[in-house]
Write a structure and sequence with these properties.
The chain is of the alpha/beta class and about 230 residues long. The chain has a single domain, classed as Rossmann fold. It is about 40% helix and about 15% strand. Strands 3-2-1-4-5-6-7 form a 7-stranded parallel sheet, sandwiched between helices. Helix 1 packs across helix 7, helix 2 runs parallel beside helix 3 and helix 3 packs parallel to helix 5.
Length: about 230
């Protein structure tokens, strides 16, 4: 039984499909959850917005140092920080503009770096957990995803390095590595796909929340595939 009673968590990207599933699972386990919100429209489909254990932080750009510092300063006894925020784009290298590369690096690598840094500072000498999200193209070469794979590879490398750096503080750092996830957006983008084979947000959330939990006593420095049957 996962138990977050009395524990504070941060979930970036918490209003998205996977984020909503993670936030819901944390609430079930008794956590207090801080969720940054970039645009107010994100809250329109967010099912937990009125939950008493949710604290929303609007106007937070996770690629801006001051905004990320403000988010983490709003916590008091942070235990776990889960970093789901990011973006996606694909295309042949010849048609990938520098702006696409820079945008993916900012949305995936920079947001993860800043969130990890502030989480490590905030948790400090207390035991805690950090969970990031890489992507399958990091581990399985995939055509036409050079920029996206590189940005997520930075997340993976950051995870492995921090796992060693923070181990002496009993802060376990891990990342999940999903394939394509069964969301409404992905179904719309790939109408002919076999959705049954895609992992569901709630299924991936179970793995993420375990890695972020006190019940994860020993796992650190892991890149955990969450592919399902895909």
């Amino acid at each position: 039984m996962l138990d977050f009673s009395g524990r504070e968590t941060v979930v970036t990207g918490g209003t998205g499909a996977l984020g909503s599933a993670v936030v819901g699972r944390l609430l079930e386990a008794g956590a207090r959850v801080h969720v940054p919100v970039f645009r107010s429209e994100e809250l329109e489909g967010f099912p937990h917005r009125n939950h008493e254990a949710i604290e929303l932080h609007e106007g937070v750009d996770l690629s801006v140092e001051a905004d990320v510092a403000r988010l983490f300063d709003a916590t008091s006894l942070l235990y776990a920080s889960i970093h789901l925020a990011g973006g996606f784009a694909m295309g042949a290298i010849g048609s990938t503009e520098l702006g696409v590369w820079e945008r993916l690096m900012r949305m995936n690598a920079t947001t993860c770096f800043l969130s990890c840094r502030e989480a490590a500072r905030t948790i400090g000498a207390r035991a805690g957990r950090i969970v990031n999200v890489a992507a399958r193209p990091v581990l399985v070469p995939t055509a036409q995803m050079a920029a996206y794979a590189a940005s997520k590879a930075a997340v993976a490398a950051l995870t492995l390095s921090l796992a060693e750096e923070l181990a002496s503080s009993s802060i376990w750092v891990n990342a999940v590595v999903p394939s394509i996830i069964d969301t409404t957006v992905n179904r719309s983008a790939m109408p002919g796909a076999d959705y049954v084979r895609w992992p569901k947000p709630a299924e991936i959330a179970e793995t993420i929340v375990f890695l972020a939990s006190p019940q994860n006593a020993v796992t650190r420095g892991a890149l955990v595939p969450v592919y399902g049957m895909s």
